[in-house]
Amino acid sequence: xxxxxxxxxxxxxxxxxxxxxxxxxxxxxxxxxxxxxxxxxxxxxxxxxxxxxxxxxxxxxxxxxxxxxxxxxxxxxxxxxxxxxxxxxxxxxxxxxxxxxxxxxxxxxxxxxxxxxxxxxxxxxxxxxxxxxxxxxxxxxxxxxxxxxxxxxxxxxxxxxxxxxxxxxxxxxxxxxxxxxxxxxxxxxxxxxxxxxxxxxxxxxxxxxxxxxxxxxxxxxxxxxxxxxxxxxxxxxxxxxxxxxxxxxxxxxxxxxxxxxxxxxxxxxxxxxxxxxxxxxxxxxxxxxxxxxxxxxxxxxxxxxxxxxxxxxxxxxxxxxxxxxxxxxxxxxxxxxxxxxxxxxxxxxxxxxxxxxxxxxxxxxxxxxxxxxxxxxxxxxxxxxxxxxxxxxxxxxxxxxxxxxxxxxxxxxxxxxxxxxxxxx
Length: 425
Prior knowledge:
Elements: H1 3-6, H2 27-59, H3 76-83, H4 86-109, H5 111-136, H6 141-187, H7 189-198, H8 200-212, H9 215-251, H10 253-261, H11 269-308, H12 313-324, H13 330-345, H14 347-372, H15 381-424
Helix pairs in contact: 5-6, 5-9, 5-11, 11-12, 11-14, 11-15, 12-13, 13-14
């Protein structure tokens, strides 16, 4: 072997041309080489065609797959179909009705408790501004609550001391003088004429004897008396419970408000706190203003009765003060009662009382109320009348007292929440 042959690279490194020339290949393998080259060309053509089809397929928008044919539900889906049956719907509806009846019955049983709670909450909102006056001056809240609550107890004690003795004394006098009043009434000329014409005394005596011999009537009367006594006892217990609950709520009002605000989502909490504080401020300010106006009315009534020498001045003044707490009609009712008492004494005194109340109402409406209620609620007249009627129908005197503050709170929510939201839509 020559040196030139030793320097040739190994066979594995030789490059084979892409297409062999059959002339350079021995005749024995010429046909095999030709067939291999033809096969290779066909494979390349097929590969190029396949790539072109795949590219066109990717570029073409794909149609949505057809929904699979519906099949009969099996397993858990059969239960869903069963839930839509009329029997199941009726059964669930009946359970819902029974649950609603049960809740309504329990709420009606809790009406007394809810009333006491509402009264305590209202008194808390009324007294809280006074407590905050002390706390802003550096006094601890517990001490401020103690001072305010002691003042409230003192006011109730003073009212009881002023009202209870005259009421007891005058009631005793009325009972003692009742027979004489009846004799004087029977001896009047017009009463004698009516008795002679219609035989009133005989009919009254016969009716009274028949009623007293009727066991059902007697039991009804005594049952009514006992029921009235139970109502008075329940009222005293409810009043004491309201005072105790007011004391607890007044002492823990900040923590109660914080706990209630935590139930609101954090993103809306500042807005809710601002609206709630404004509503509570309006309620407390309105109640304090109404109490001030009613107190002024009661004091002026007491002075009038003392000057005119009319009976029951303290009792009538306190009654006018309590009626003055009722919006819209309370002052009018008080004036009617005082005028009726004056009319029983002397028609001239009744005329003086009527003139006084007409003048006083003008002064109260245009001088006293604007000054006292300057920072409290502002409710349109139609809304005021409607809210008082609704509150009085639902909760009586308590509903009439809290109707205007609640209406003011609802108006605040309307102005600050509903109107801006509707403006953004």
